[in-house]
């Protein structure tokens, strides 16, 4: 029977004596993996032993053909010998793959560099290794037999979820299974059989041939279905893409009162079709490039061949083809890879979600970049003033559009310089203000314990927190919390004498002015540069503000956007059109921007309203 002493002893023993923990050993992600280059067994062949097995398999097939031919000859079945010609031709085509040089190359080469084999079993084995079967459940390998004479084995390879099952069943599987041997022409040779299947059997609108596994993988990963036929040293890529994508919706970041209400989607072909719907021209060229060694992300380059500078198109393609990376899934990352000044805060490509805006810039001679899976397009080259243009500028009269552009430029100066000017005047140049205003500011700051610099930095930091929090909170709740948070924080900070009311007004004006800039990247650049300007204002006063602004102007003048000076048409001074800051009437937009150096510089004749040349028809004219 346990007493209080024995219980106390056991408790102290448990407390003082070490006991091994009963919890399992925690998982640690260490660096014990073998990072050596893959050996030959990972490439599909295992050296001389596998080479010998392939040769023995080929010899066994030859032996079976000879035994069957001898059997038909003894039985007098000469018609069967005619049907065996297809088998003999297939073995003859496979013979070229059995050379020692070809086997040695396949043994040491990577799977992507391998050629499609004429042996169906070898193609299947390599596909299983490429797509990590049977662990990978996305890849589907469908066996089928083509009803020819003799029957030929084939396989269909596709990714589940990326193909349209209805198209696959009705336009691929059903025609192949009902393809009659009576329609085979030219003795069923490899080339003629493949061509006849493509021309007469498969009703898909896009069909390509692939002779290497790099092309095969790109097609399968994009949603195509690959058809491998026994005895044919090439694959047939059939367009069966049917991945579910978001439809065309209204713009969310570039909303306008007038104009188009369509925005880009994540589908590359949907986006290119939206641009073609806006710019209906046979001269509109779309080129597709692949980016990323592991992802092969498709990137579309669109331009008007008769307008765009060919040097610009060539240079853009050179930069994109010169990108060496495993993954690239965002067009902002693509911009950093190819732009002239990736370390500069100011954007060097116009980002937009509106197809109508892309069409306007393509008509001027610029080039558009569209990345698969991204609902945005980038337009290059651009100037500083392009980012202050809106999608609906040409929907209003010239005077109204010009006034709005001047307002946006004024907003950029306000968000950049207003806090710095207040700080410089408050620290060094109080005499620059009228006496009544200076006394009012001093009275408002009488009970504030912090310097003006701490006040502004504190309010700037709070404003950025509210802005970021409002963006990350989902739904309508984000905007509500942003407005309520700003009101409560501002009122509470003034009531607690942490900041003065004038600082709250200045930061609110600077924040609202940043929202008036149409481009988000340009607004972010001004917001970030505002902090170094505050430091210069706190240390050197108006001299520091002027010096910082001068350095900023020098930086902008030294920049280029894909070969075009960033501050055109001001620096360098070139012939400008009525679409920089002052927006002239639409019937006076006669020339394209001079800095683009387009093939065709004339956009419309000097008198575009040709109805002015004719006399008005009166009521006496007959219809």
From TrEMBL:
Domain of life assignment: Bacteria
**Keywords, sorted A to Z:** Membrane, Transmembrane, Transmembrane helix
- Where is the chain membrane-spanning? 406-428, 473-492, 498-517, 529-556
Q: Name one GO biological process term.
A: spore germination
Gene Ontology cellular component list: membrane
Is Ion transport a UniProt keyword of this protein? no
The record's listing under InterPro entries reads: Spore_Ger, UPF0353/GerABKA_families
Instruction: Work out whether the entry's keyword set contains Transmembrane helix.
Output: yes
Give the family from UniProt: Belongs to the GerABKA family.
- Which protein are we looking at? Spore germination protein GerKA
Where does this protein come from, organism-wise?
Answer: Sporomusa ovata
């Amino acid at each position: 029977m346990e007493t209080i002493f024995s219980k106390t002893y056991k408790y102290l023993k448990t407390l003082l004596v070490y006991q091994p923990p009963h919890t399992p050993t925690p998982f640690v992600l260490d660096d014990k993996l073998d990072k050596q280059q893959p050996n030959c067994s990972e490439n599909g062949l295992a050296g001389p032993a596998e080479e010998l097995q392939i040769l023995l398999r080929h010899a066994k097939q030859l032996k079976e053909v000879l035994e069957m031919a001898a059997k038909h000859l003894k039985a007098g079945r000469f018609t069967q010998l005619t049907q065996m010609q297809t088998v003999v031709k297939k073995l003859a085509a496979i013979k070229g793959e059995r050379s020692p040089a070809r086997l040695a190359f396949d043994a040491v080469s990577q799977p992507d560099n391998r050629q499609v084999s004429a042996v169906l079993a070898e193609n299947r084995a390599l596909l299983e290794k490429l797509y990590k079967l049977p662990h990978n459940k996305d890849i589907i390998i469908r066996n089928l037999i083509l009803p020819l004479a003799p029957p030929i084995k084939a396989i269909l390879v596709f990714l589940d979820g990326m193909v349209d099952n209805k198209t696959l069943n009705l336009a691929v599987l059903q025609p192949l299974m009902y393809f009659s041997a009576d329609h085979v022409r030219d003795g069923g040779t490899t080339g003629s059989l493949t061509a006849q299947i493509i021309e007469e059997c498969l009703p898909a609108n896009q069909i390509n041939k692939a002779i290497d596994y790099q092309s095969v993988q790109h097609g399968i990963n994009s949603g195509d279905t690959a058809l491998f036929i026994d005895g044919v040293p090439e694959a047939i890529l059939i367009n069966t893409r049917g991945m579910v994508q978001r439809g065309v919706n209204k713009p969310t970041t570039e909303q306008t009162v007038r104009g188009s209400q369509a925005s880009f989607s994540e589908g590359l072909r949907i986006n290119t079709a939206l641009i073609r719907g806006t710019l209906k021209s046979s001269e509109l060229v779309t080129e597709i490039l692949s980016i990323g060694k592991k992802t092969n992300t498709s990137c579309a380059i669109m331009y008007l061949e008769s307008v765009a500078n060919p040097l610009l198109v060539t240079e853009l393609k050179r930069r994109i083809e010169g990108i060496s990376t495993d993954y690239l899934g965002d067009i902002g990352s693509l911009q950093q890879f190819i732009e002239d000044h990736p370390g500069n805060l100011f954007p060097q490509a116009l980002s937009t979600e509106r197809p109508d805006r892309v069409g306007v810039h393509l008509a001027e001679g610029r080039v558009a970049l569209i990345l698969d899976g991204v609902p945005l397009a980038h337009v290059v080259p651009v100037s500083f003033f392009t980012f202050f243009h809106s999608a609906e500028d040409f929907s209003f009269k010239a005077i109204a559009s010009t006034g709005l552009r001047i307002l946006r430029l004024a907003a950029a100066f306000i968000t950049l310089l207003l806090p710095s000017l207040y700080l410089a005047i408050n620290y060094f140049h109080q005499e620059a203000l009228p006496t009544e205003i200076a006394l009012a500011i001093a009275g408002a700051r009488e009970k504030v314990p912090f310097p003006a610099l701490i006040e502004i930095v504190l309010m700037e930091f709070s404003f950025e927190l509210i802005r970021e929090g409002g963006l990350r909170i989902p739904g309508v709740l984000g905007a509500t919390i942003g407005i309520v948070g700003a009101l409560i924080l501002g009122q509470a900070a003034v009531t607690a004498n942490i900041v003065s009311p004038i600082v709250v007004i200045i930061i609110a004006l600077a924040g609202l002015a940043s929202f008036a800039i149409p481009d988000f990247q340009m607004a972010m650049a001004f917001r970030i540069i505002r902090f170094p300007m505050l430091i210069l204002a706190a240390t050197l006063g108006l001299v520091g503000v002027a010096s910082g602004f001068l350095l900023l102007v020098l930086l902008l003048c030294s920049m280029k956007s894909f070969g075009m000076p960033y501050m055109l048409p001001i620096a360098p001074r070139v012939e400008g059109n009525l679409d920089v800051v002052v927006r002239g009437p639409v019937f006076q937009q006669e020339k394209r921007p001079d800095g683009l150096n387009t093939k065709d510089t004339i956009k419309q004749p000097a008198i575009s309203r040709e109805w002015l040349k004719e006399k008005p028809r009166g009521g006496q004219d007959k219809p």
